[in-house]
Amino acid sequence: xxxxxxxxxxxxxxxxxxxxxxxxxxxxxxxxxxxxxxxxxxxxxxxxxxxxxxxxxxxxxxxxxxxxxxxxxxxxxxxxxxxxxxxxxxxxxxxxxxxxxxxxxxxxxxxxxxxxxxxxxxxxxxxxxxxxxxxxxxxxxxxxxxxxxxxxxxxxxxxxxxxxxxxxxxxxxxxxxxxxxxxxxxxxxxxxxxxxxxxxxxxxxxxxxxxxxxxxxxxxxxxxxxxxxxxxxxxxxxxxxxxxxxxxxxxxxxxxxxxxxxxxxxxxxxxxxxxxxxxxxxxxxxxxxxxxxxxxxxxxxxxxxxxxxxxxxxxxxxxxxxxxxxxxxxxxxxxxxxxxxxxxxxxxxxxxxxx
Length: 355
Fold this sequence. Notes:
By secondary structure, the protein is mostly helical. Helix content is 63%, strand content 4%.
C-alpha cells in the first residue's frame, strides 16, 4: 500500500511528514526503554525481514495482490516504539533506494503504514493477551487478530486522508468500502505471516518476544503447609541474560535473504490493493512518476542487468543488507544512549509487568 507522489496534496503531505517526524522523535525516546542486549540486534533483523517479506506480493482476489505491512509483527517482537522505528527504516529504504513509495509521500506512508498499524495492532494485542489464558498459543492468537485488524485500519486511515486531501474527488463511502474490503483479504495474509513468525520465535526463544514478556504460563504452584509456593524446577536453566540471540538472528537473516533473493521472483505481478482501487475508481492517473525512477535499484532490480531473476535477486539481497545495516546502526545507537540510572533500572525491571 505504498502511496505514490500525487495522490495527496502538498499541504497534507507536509502535515503528515511533521506527524511522522514527531512520531519518530517520540519513538527514539521510547525505544530506549524497549531495547536491550537481546532486542537491539533483533530489531535490525526485524527491519530486514519485513523489507524482504514486503517484496512477496501474494494474490488475494482476481487481479489483486497484497503484501505484508509489518506493523503488528514489529510491535509484538520488539515493542511499539521500536516498531515505529523499524517501519520508518524500511519505508525510507524503499523510497530512497528502490523508488517504491513517493518521496514527498514518505510522511504519508510512515503515518498510515507505520504509525497506524503499530498503534492499532499493539493496543489490540495488549488487550487480548490480558484476557486470554497465559500461554504461548494465546500470544500467537492475539498476534493473528491484531495483524488482521491493523491492515484494514491502515486502509481506512488512507481513505480518510484522501477524502480530506486527495488530488481528485472520489465518494468517501465508495472509496472506504473498496479499500477496507480488499485490505481485509490482505489482512488475512498479514495475520498468517505474523502469527507464524511470532509463533516460531516463541517456540525457541520466548524471551525475545517483547509482547510475550510476563504473559506466558505462570510457574507451577504447590501447596505446602497451607501456602502456595513455586514448584522447584527439575534443572537450573541457563540464565536468560546469558543466552545469545545469535542462533535466532542467523536463521532470521538466512530466511530474509532467501525471501528477497530467491522467493521474491515468484511474487504476484498483480497490482496491490491500493493500485487496484485507484485503477477501478479512476484516480490512478494522479500518480506522479518517482523522481528516482531511473535509479540503480529502482523497482527492485539492477539497472542494465538483463537477467530478470538475477537482477531482482541481487537487488533484494542488497536491500536486505542495507536495511539490516541501517536498522542495526540506529537501534544500537539508541541502545547505547539508554541511561542506567537507578530509576531507569527500576523501571526496566518492571517492563514485563507493564506490557
